[in-house]
Each structure stands twice: as structure tokens, then as C-alpha cells.
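Whiteboard transcription, Tuesday session. T.W. wrote the C-alpha cells on the left side:
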């Protein structure tokens, strides 16, 4: 088990010394044939679990992710923090305990999930437009330049890369 943020290697385990390793999860002695090493500690394979989904990390892959004291599988890390763990608007890190908003695979701080024109915050239940990586409230939806002519979205309701999403809940 490897923590992508850590470059440390496990110290050698010698069976002749009978110095049992203690599990960082349960505190018990590890007498199992296999043990895991993650976050500079040894673990029973049954004890190293994702903080969100409780999946045993040794069974689902060879890496785990840590952030804000949580141990996460890859899927939950991406679900909570996006691919980079940073807000798509401001680029700052998003703490594990913070609620987030999502649009088209991007993750945002609540305060950063705003209309690109009027800067008003978009909240669950608001309709918004996501165009070329920018968010727009229903009122400020932009006009589109199509084939060199300026047409309003009233006559051309959706651009090929435009999605209309109604927010229903905040992910955490």
C-alpha cells in the first residue's frame, strides 16, 4: 500500500526478531502473513479502510490517499476533492471537512461557485449554464457568437458545449 504523498519506505520486518508490529488501526499485534504499510505505519489488511466507504484498501488497489486526517480510496478522494483536490475557480485546496459544489466534473468551494458575470453565488436549486468552463446564472446567460453572427440564446437555446443543470444537493 502506497500513499502517493509519501516517499518513505517501510522498515524491514524480520521474522527472527519476533518484534511484532502494532496495527495503526486497532493497536493489536500483527501476526498475519500479510501486513500493509501506509502513512508511516503498519496495518492489518482488515483495518486499513477508506474513511468514507469503509472499503478495505488492500483489496481494492495498491494506493491510498490522505487528506485532513482521512484515509481515502481513489474514488472517494476524487469524489470529494476532484482530480486535483483544488477548487476549479480559485485553485486553492479544499479541506476534507468542507462542503463543495460540482459542475461537469469540476469541484468548487461554496463561496467560489458563482456566476461569471454578476458574481452572485449559485446555491442548490438554482438553474445555471456551464459554458466553456464558466458558470452563469439564469439571468446572465450569455449571448452566443454563431457563424460570425450574434444571436441571443432565446433563438438558439443551447450551444453544443452548453449544459443546463439544476442543483439539487451539496456534496460532502
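and on the right, the sequence the group agreed on:
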Amino acid at each position: 500500500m502506497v500513499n502517493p504523498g509519501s516517499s518513505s519506505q517501510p522498515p524491514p520486518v524480520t521474522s527472527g526478531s519476533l518484534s511484532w508490529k502494532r496495527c495503526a488501526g486497532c493497536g493489536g499485534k500483527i501476526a498475519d502473513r500479510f501486513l500493509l504499510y501506509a502513512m508511516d505505519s503498519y496495518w492489518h489488511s482488515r483495518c486499513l479502510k477508506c474513511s468514507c466507504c469503509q472499503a478495505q484498501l488492500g483489496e481494492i488497489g495498491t494506493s491510498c490517499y490522505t487528506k485532513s486526517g482521512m484515509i481515502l480510496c481513489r474514488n472517494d478522494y476524487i469524489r470529494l476533492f476532484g482530480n486535483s483536490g483544488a477548487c476549479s475557480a480559485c485553485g486553492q485546496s479544499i479541506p476534507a471537512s468542507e462542503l463543495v459544489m460540482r459542475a461537469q466534473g469540476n469541484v468548487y468551494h461554496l463561496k467560489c461557485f458563482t456566476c461569471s458575470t454578476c458574481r452572485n453565488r449559485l446555491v442548490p436549486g438554482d438553474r445555471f449554464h456551464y459554458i466553456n468552463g464558466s458558470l452563469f446564472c439564469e439571468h446572465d446567460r450569455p449571448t452566443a457568437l454563431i457563424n460570425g453572427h450574434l444571436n441571443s440564446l432565446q433563438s438558439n437555446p443551447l450551444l453544443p458545449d452548453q449544459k443546463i443543470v439544476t442543483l439539487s444537493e451539496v456534496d460532502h
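Someone added at the bottom: Residues 22 and 69 are 19 Å apart (CA to CA).
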